[in-house]
Write a structure and sequence with these properties.
This protein is an alpha+beta fold and about 675 residues long. Helices cover about 40% and strands about 20% of the residues. The longest helix has about 50 residues, at about 580-630. The radius of gyration is 49 Å and the shape is elongated.
């Protein structure tokens, strides 16, 4: 609009409140095999009346067209209008303009445009692509709000995607028209659309750990499919190590598209099980998106966390595979579009926050690089796996006492506790925190110091569950109350229990440890003041019993066996492990008492056996001496003959053999009349 005395020329464009009413209807016709044909009908009306000596009119008008558009024509009232072009800040867009006679107040003019979108070569500077089975281009229609209509007619075989959800499909035979009558802003409608016919795409199948991936490229773009195949096959094992987990298999297709280049980001679509990446041969971006099979919103609450981790992982894997990568530069924290990363979730792209989005991606990469970029492969993989599982840094690794979706707070705890990264809190303050988070960080610092002190006092055991829960949730007032209820003495006593167990050569009493680590209420904290000191005493007693049950030599071993000392020791250890401290003390005292008596009992037992054996040997020796004293050939007394023959009294001597009575007697041997009978022989000899 121009306000002039007697009039002056000006070019019109969509601008609300400028006195020009603009209505447009733009139709894109895509046949899936050739260029896109576009027709635009614009009607402008001068609604700015004269003011004083000034009159207002237009004698030129322009519409945005793709920079690659050809065959641009314009007609008005049946006459062809010359078309000129003007560059814009966007190198992919030009303004096509026409001139005409002055359009005065109350008058209107309709201009009909047509042009062709032939597309641009793959991996060229522009982002418009048109080819067999695919078309990607920007929809740009100028007009006042509510006065803009856009139609995109496509074959029903083509899938349709758009950066804006304002299109409604209307089916008409073999044609599907995607129609929008709302505007994206006050100046008209802008959106980027992507159309493709899957049947015409080139497909390559790749086996990754037993999972088949389909690579879907533009027809003839073998450079892209070859690059992606090589990177996926080579880099997948590296990616698995970087995240500390095997490939979950939640992916079916990797698709080439230009849309990510326009939007500034690619994406992992869990609904359609596909990754969409641009035609650029960027290994870092490829692995960034592949890592989203793990690093996604169902496991991580904050966008900056999973996007930052994905970028760090993607760049690391690309560096190891030798693939090209383009890391994001660090942004200025005080940039005009800077936002604290904790607020990234609230950025509304529909309100033109593209610059804030770009900043947030770069800031997330920068912050995460400072937090975990310096970790080696094992440390990074372990940390990412723990974050994926929802572990708390205050629980033992691999446990889920306090599970949860990992947000920035839980990640910071993991980075500091598990990763041991110095300066992590400073990074969080710089890039992530807003005013509320900063206040929490101020309370977190002393709470962390107090927690570390208590955790050091209680040895290898974890602090009570109530305290760990409060620290995990960043509920620092609750954490302070829990520490006060637990008390420093309880933590020290827990350490003393462990020291006593080591000194006794015993494992930590499981039930006592469980009682300490699971405590979460005031009553349970108070019980520790009694249980833990008592446990120290009982562990010592059981250790003494264990020591008493060994050593001392064979005689002591015999006595312990007879007294079942080992059985009492087993009872004492079992009771201690179960937390039955009084029973354990009783069994330990019993075992020690029995062990003290064991050597005497063992010695007495051996002496009894020796005496018994000596008596038996003496009787046997006397028996053998009597038998040797009998005359040669004299029959044995009754019971001496193995064949059960007759006794000497009944035997008849053989011819020529002297009779027993004729044998000379020894000085100490009784006469035959004095010889004791068999019936008078001692019982021991009979035996």
């Amino acid at each position: 609009m121009c306000a002039v005395l007697l009039g002056a020329p000006t070019a019109a464009s969509a601008d609300t409140g400028d006195g020009l009413s603009e209505t447009s209807r733009t139709r894109y016709e895509v046949d899936g095999s050739g260029p896109v044909r576009v027709t635009v009908t614009t009607t402008i009306r001068n609604e700015q009346p004269a003011s004083g000596m000034y009159v207002y009119y237009w004698d030129a008008y322009g519409i945005p067209v793709p920079a690659s558009a050809t065959d641009v024509t314009a007609t008005s009232g049946g006459a062809t209008l010359p078309v000129t072009f003007e560059q814009t800040e966007d190198p992919s867009t030009r303004i096509a303009g026409v001139s005409f006679s002055p359009l005065n107040y109350g008058r209107e003019r309709t201009v009909e445009w047509s042009y062709t979108i032939p597309g641009e070569p793959i991996r060229s500077e522009g982002y418009t692509r048109v080819g067999p089975g695919y078309a990607t281009f920007a929809v740009n229609a100028a007009g006042d709000p509510g006065q803009v209509t856009v139609e995109i007619a496509t074959p029903t075989s083509m899938d349709f995607d758009s950066t804006w959800d304002g299109f409604t499909p209307v089916l008409d035979g073999e044609t599907r028209t995607h129609r929008a009558t709302e505007s994206t802003d006050d100046y008209g409608t802008w959106a980027f659309v992507s159309l493709r016919d899957p049947a015409q795409a080139d497909e390559t199948s790749v086996d990754v750990g037993g999972n088949e991936l389909v690579l879907e490229s533009f027809p003839g773009d073998t450079e892209w499919s070859g690059f992606v195949e090589e990177q996926v096959v080579t880099g997948m094992p590296v990616l698995e190590r970087a995240v500390g987990m095997p490939w979950p298999g939640s992916l079916e297709r990797i698709r080439e598209d230009v849309s990510p280049g326009v939007l500034g980001y690619a994406w992992f679509d869990s609904a359609s099980w596909e990754i969409v990446i641009p035609e650029d041969l960027d290994a870092g971006l490829l692995f960034h998106e592949l890592s989203h099979a793990w690093l996604a919103g169902d496991r991580f609450a904050d966008r900056w966390v999973y996007e930052g981790l994905a970028e760090v992982v993607g760049q690391r894997v690309a560096a190891e595979t030798g693939g090209p990568a383009e890391p994001r530069p660090a942004p200025a924290r005080d940039a005009a579009d800077a936002v604290p990363l904790v607020a990234w979730q609230e950025v509304d792209l529909d309100d033109g926050a593209g610059a804030a989005e770009e900043y947030a991606y770069a800031a997330a990469w920068t912050a995460m690089s400072e937090l975990v970029g310096g970790l080696d492969e094992d440390a990074l993989g372990g940390l990412v796996a723990a974050a994926y599982a929802g572990e708390s840094a205050y629980d033992a690794p691999g446990t889920l006492d306090h599970p949860g979706v990992t947000d920035g707070r839980r990640l910071l705890d993991l980075v500091e506790v598990r990763g041991g990264v110095a300066g992590a809190e400073a990074t969080y303050r710089t890039w992530v925190a807003d005013a509320d988070e900063t206040a929490l960080l101020d309370a977190r610092a002393p709470a962390r110091e107090a927690y570390v002190e208590l955790d050091a006092a209680d040895g290898a055991w974890s602090p009570p569950a109530g305290l760990r829960a409060a620290m995990t949730d960043w509920a620092f007032e609750d954490a302070e109350a829990a520490r006060a209820a637990i008390g420093a003495d309880a933590a020290a006593a827990a350490g003393h229990v462990q020291e006593a167990a080591r000194a006794a050569g015993l494992p930590d009493p499981a039930a006592v440890r469980e009682q300490y680590e699971d405590a979460g209420s005031a009553e349970e904290y108070a019980a520790l003041a009694t249980t833990l000191p008592r446990a120290v005493e009982v562990v010592g007693s059981v250790g003494d019993a264990v020591s008493a049950a060994s050593g001392g030599g064979p005689l002591a071993d015999l006595g312990r066996l007879l007294l079942d000392v080992d059985g009492s020791v087993v009872d004492a250890r079992a009771a201690l492990d179960d937390g039955r401290l009084d029973d354990a003390a009783t069994a330990a005292d019993d075992a020690s008492s029995r062990a003290a008596a064991a050597p005497w009992l063992g010695t007495g037992g051996v002496l009894l056996v020796v005496v018994a054996l000596a008596g038996a040997v003496l009787l046997l020796a006397r028996r053998r001496a009597r038998r040797r004293a009998q005359p040669e050939g004299e029959p044995a007394v009754d019971g001496d003959r193995p064949d059960g023959g007759t006794s000497a009294d009944d035997a008849t001597p053989a011819e020529g053999e002297p009779h027993a009575g004729d044998e000379p007697l020894a000085d100490d041997e009784p006469t035959s009349g004095e010889q004791p009978s068999v019936d008078e022989e001692p019982e021991a000899v009979k035996a």
